[in-house]
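Lab notebook: predicted structure, single chain.

Context: the supervisor wants predicted structures on file for every construct in the current expression panel, including those that have not yet been purified. This is the next one on the list. No modifications to the sequence; it matches the entry in the shared construct table.
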Amino acid sequence: GVITFSGEDYKLLGVDLSELSELERALEEAGLDNEIPTLFIAEVVLTYMENRRSDALIQWAAEHFSQACFLLYEQMHPEDPFGRVMQQHFSQLNSALHSLSQYPDCEAQQRRFFEKGWTECSVMDMNEFFACCTPEDEQQRVQALEPFDEYEEWHLKCSHYFVLTASKGMEPSWTPLLSNMTVPCHDGPVRVAGSITAAACAMHSEISGLRRYGHHSVLIKPNVILTTGGFGEEDGQHCRMRNFHVLIKHAGYWKAGSVKKENPDKRWDERLYHTVSCLSNSVALVVGGRTSPSSAGLGMLWLKFPETCNASDPGDITVALVKIFAFVTYQILTSLFTWLSFSIGEKYLFLYGGRSAMEPVLGDWYFLHTQELSCTVIPVEGPVPESRHSHSACSWKGGVLIAGGLGAAEQPLGSVFFLRELEQSFQWQTVETYPSLVPRYSHTAHVHDGKLLLVGGVWFHSSSVPGITVIDLMTGLCLDYAINVEHLEWPLMLHNHSSVFLPNEKELLLIGGGGNCFSFGTHLNLEPVSLSLSSILTSH
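Prediction complete. Output recorded below exactly as produced.
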């Protein structure tokens, strides 16, 4: 039957869209004239129908209206990690997405409309739509609506939805998605130089406590990894993580050590997105982070641990964390996503970029004297990098390498800078990469043997996900490697993760990662993953 809400210029009909003769009759009775220009809008509708029925509807619209436009908005890219989580969400709701198997991407959807009788068709994903078709003042209005920093999930969601416009018989032709392209939009697919196979870590037993994101994992001594903070699974529930976690490698296997806090009255403040830098084999410094998007500015913490571990009996290694005490430092050390590195003979910690509760991106830097924890002014020359957060920083040759990040317009950056040590000062230098580095953020980074390794992250090329990128710092050669995840039984999301590189074994350990998507729920990577990089790091 047809349920009609009828007003002067508005009619609402309830019809089964797969019964085209019934649809036609209902529209005719409602007085629709199919000779005048008609706009069809399908906002996540067709994908819930079987493909042969939705195809028939698209073709029917083209055949029965002499001047028509069709606007379609729905999901795509079902097979990458975010796509798998998205599909799982809809399956759990018992409303599977039918279009995805036959029309998995923009190109397939565009072909579909051409084949069904539409003469013009343009399509783009929602990251591109937001950057290219949304006026700048509207972008800024939306970005300022509320405290928000779940950029990764927002951009991943947008890369899994597209908007398509098709038309026929329209003069002049109707292609609104191409009208005001002021932003250079994304090129073709990323060229992949090869792939690296991901394997579950060699563990003594299943290790709990590492299903988290926004944490920080750091090698505090050979074969000992300390993980602090983040959001994840603790005591059977999702929360900001209170417990520290230690992984210890012994005889080729990783196992969880027990963490004893020497001063249990000093509680970890449950921060996320902080950094931890080892200043010696018994001290690490925690800087930055936030407890919520509007409460940054947490001051610094010392973490202290014994200089030696009892390696003869690995079954009973405990790492004692001594005196976690907070400094009330200058306002400057309160950025949200501060990435650190050391320089000048390891006397200074270099703090660069990030964001604060008030400033969406920061572009300033500080040299922190590690003994007194005071800021030292050291002159810096050269072209200043644009402000950013969620970038990476690594120490190299007494200086610092900064790569990628999210810039002021919430667009990923593809620049790499080297802060080079001179006699009495430092100098920013741009590192040119060939081909150009695909812009990204929320990745991690390591330097090995003159090569910068970028791990995971988020970029706007929706046809693939970031794997490992290797930049040769001598020649600028930039190679992208995909991560082969066929041996993992769960989707590996490489953002908000930590990674630890073991140079002797050329092994990369991926710890945690994932996020909380406002549409599809929380995804946490189930266990640490190991990548052997020896094949891509061998000197030629």
